[in-house]
User: What shape does this take?
Amino acid sequence: MTDQSSISENDTAVASAAVEPWYKKGLNFKCTECGQCCTGGPGFVWVTEEEIAAMADLLQISVKDFKIKYVRKRGKRQSLNERKSDNFACVFLKDKKCLVYKARPEQCRTFPWWKENLESEESWKLAASTCEGIHNEAPVVPYSQIVQFGKL
Assistant: This one.
C-alpha cells in the first residue's frame, strides 16, 4: 500500500518547483537617481558593522564618531538616522544624491529587488508608484540578474 502523505508531499514539491516566478521574463527598471527610495517613512535602513565601517572609511571618520552622528539603535539592530523634518529622508541624501553611494548598505544597493516588491505584479506596481525608474520604457533587467540581487 502506498503512503498517501508521501505522494501528496512529493507532488506538492514537484508542483512548487515547476511554478516560475511571475517576473521570469525580467522587469523594466533603470535607476534615475531621483532619491525617492531614500525618503518617506518613517522607516529603517538596517546596517551591519561592516557597512558602518565602510561608510565611516569613505567619510574619513572613526566608526565611533560615525555611530554617534549617523546611527540609531533599535533593539539589537542598527539603522541609519533619518531627517524627520525632510520627509524622513536618509541622513546621507543631499540634493537627491547619496553621499555614501560607493559604500551604501546592502538594503540600498538591492532596491527595488526586495522580496516584498517581487511577491506579485501588484506589489511591483505599488513599488512603481514611488519609484520613477520602474516603467515600461525602462530597459528589461533579466531574471538572472534579479535573482543575483536576492543572493546578496
